[in-house]
Amino acid sequence: MTHADMMDSAGPAELGATLSGLRVLELGHFVAAPFCTRLLGDLGADVIKVEPLQGDPVRQWGAQVDGRSLWWSIHGRNKRSIALDLKKPDARDIILALVAQCDVVVENFRPGQLARMSLGPDALRAVRPDLIIAHISGYGQTGPYRDRAAFGVIGEAIGGLRYLTNHAPGQNDLPPVRVGVSIGDSIAGLYAAFGIMAALWQRDREGGDAAARSLDVALTESVFSMMEAMLPEYGKLGIIKQPTGGGIATAAPSNAYPTKDGSWVLIAANSEPLFAKLAVLIGRPQMIDDPDYVGNAARVRNAARLDAIIGEWTGRHVSSELLLLLNGADIPNSKVYTAHDCATDPQYLDRGMVREIDDTAFGTVLHSGIVPHVPQSPGTIRWPGPDIGTHTDEVLMELAAMKHAEIAALREQGIIR
Amino acid sequence: MTHADMMDSAGPAELGATLSGLRVLELGHFVAAPFCTRLLGDLGADVIKVEPLQGDPVRQWGAQVDGRSLWWSIHGRNKRSIALDLKKPDARDIILALVAQCDVVVENFRPGQLARMSLGPDALRAVRPDLIIAHISGYGQTGPYRDRAAFGVIGEAIGGLRYLTNHAPGQNDLPPVRVGVSIGDSIAGLYAAFGIMAALWQRDREGGDAAARSLDVALTESVFSMMEAMLPEYGKLGIIKQPTGGGIATAAPSNAYPTKDGSWVLIAANSEPLFAKLAVLIGRPQMIDDPDYVGNAARVRNAARLDAIIGEWTGRHVSSELLLLLNGADIPNSKVYTAHDCATDPQYLDRGMVREIDDTAFGTVLHSGIVPHVPQSPGTIRWPGPDIGTHTDEVLMELAAMKHAEIAALREQGIIR
Prior knowledge:
Two copies of one chain form a homodimer. With 417 residues, chain A is of the alpha/beta class. The first copy, chain A, has two domains: 3-227 and 352-412, Crotonobetainyl-coa:carnitine coa-transferase, domain 1 (Rossmann fold); 254-258 and 264-335, formyl-coa transferase, domain 3 (2-Layer Sandwich). Chain A contains 19 helices and 13 strands. Chain A has helices spanning 3-7, 32-42, 70-75, 89-99, 113-116, 121-127, 152-158, 161-164, 183-204, 219-224, 230-237, 272-281, 296-301, 303-314, 319-328, 339-343, 346-350, 392-400, 404-412, and strands spanning 23-27, 46-51, 64-65, 68-69, 79-83, 104-107, 132-137, 214-218, 254-258, 264-268, 333-335, 354-359, 363-368. Chain A is elongated, with a radius of gyration of 26 Å. Chains A and B meet through helix 1, helix 3, strand 7, helix 7 and helix 8 of A and helix 1, helix 3, strand 7, helix 7 and helix 8 of B.
């Protein structure tokens, strides 16, 4: 049997884009809604991003070159940008003309904000009765907290994640750490993408109900839904799940250990055979029969001591040596990857997860690839994040049947860009 | 305008389940594949989980009551369990009979493992030509690392997440922390659920291509796809994104601060008006005009000093006082929620995100609710995680047209449970 038979991922793509035929209007900004539409666009949907005249703030977030953020190159990729001033009544009419041609609207204004601009669900469905609408917000569209400001870090804290990204109580007095990216926003955007496709499937399939549905996705709840046994263990046993630093509360040794060259290596040797291999490798074979370390339960009890011993050994080697030694002994391990490690990883390169993309603003830019990978019709990066309003004219002519003169007049009045 | 008009989430549900009519076979274990099918089941799909005779290992993970894990009550909810010994040839025939009645198979064996059991994609599509197959693995179905063991923590490390869940270099010598849950597995499962629905929409819609697609979802790549600007900033400017502890590299003050009663409060006061309000609130109005703190750039430069000053103030108050003071001053803030805080949160309770579910094994169990929320047809928790093989007879009679006697014979031979 060849790998091609076994893998279900080899061979040339033979199908069109997974989401060809789908048109999505994004009334979004910052991270969550634009991340959702990026996922849809990566799989081939026609995403039209509506921006204010000054553009989405993410265009200025993070490191920049000539005033353009590199993040935008990924965040805005595969989208058409149309820029207009939503405070102008004419802009509202344009939005409604576009919505009539769209399957989906994705928005992450504060709950009720679109309705206050006369673009609430009823107004949108008046022009497109079977419209799927994805609302993304901090706390959801209903409930006592619905009007509170939504920040990613607050969503993560209320979702229960932030409390856990810390060392065990008493280990130090530094605060629990942020995950380093706006993971709550991205998870919420991914949930919205899932919900949109679920609603579309039921709407559009043969035998389906042809119904318009909405998605009401909250950052807090998106994070909370990933908390595994935290809630039932609290409810039944009163357990308040605690942070465990680099380790796992129920398995040892499993942690990140320092290396001589200032990085970290993960080692997961929390079974009897793996622990025996590790004990030999670090020159402490007597630990195999030491009652303090026989069995996972004993090792968990003495995890701090065990981690210190292992860390003393790892600290004597640079990471490249450690990986050779641990792989040679068949002990699960990994370097803790930095941006450099990700960019040069052979597996990522082989699978197109690190790609060079031409961006007129920057020359060549590295983009992460497309997830999920669909072997029969891989998603494509057709263009990087466009300038503000790059597609305004094109979209208005194509979808709102406007003429050059009308568009010029709107631009003159400061309604579009 | 009433809230009902504005919110698009009020009013009674009027539609059937979003995923009614969808049948999914899970050949999964541990976290990623079962999390994917939980999401599908929560929205109404008929999920049939194939388990080994001894059950999915998660049935024994985490805190238990009478040998049953509380996690399972959530992880297995809404699924039908059929238990069989995949090493037996007759079991393979049963799988194929079930696949013929399913739209989707979700699996997270090692790449190639199902093919070695004669259940590879070709075998499955021989009985169901338009089958959608979702493969979830550590590194993906192709590439030089495809055969490596998949661990959640390793996927998170290679995805670039673990490096960032740490304090800034030089702050302490403790290792970067784990997120506290298997977030890489859950994100991969969510990506698979999105990809499944995308493939089904194109397969089943009017005007679609009626084609079978596969999803090749890797834990590593699922995490990596959420790393925002990390990769393009490295590629263009050589920036290696660094951890920033509880704060954000580009905004101050924004951090988690200690409280007198041993918890943490997040405060995000990183704009001029918010910072001014905070300075007054903590009794340091002179900071407003102090050149060390005027403007975000200056505050970022002096963030450590600023955080110490704010932390000294928060440490004098218990968290309930702090929330009153900060809300009173209209400064974005949140307690860092523990399991207790989540379980008792008014917003979660109002939106059905914390629910009491009857579980014959435990009595009442708390479950997290259903994400995404679909106001017109909210997902339902129809039953908690079932016992091993609860639905074996039912499924074999309904979908494989078996009779009682046949089923009894298979059970006698140890093929099913």
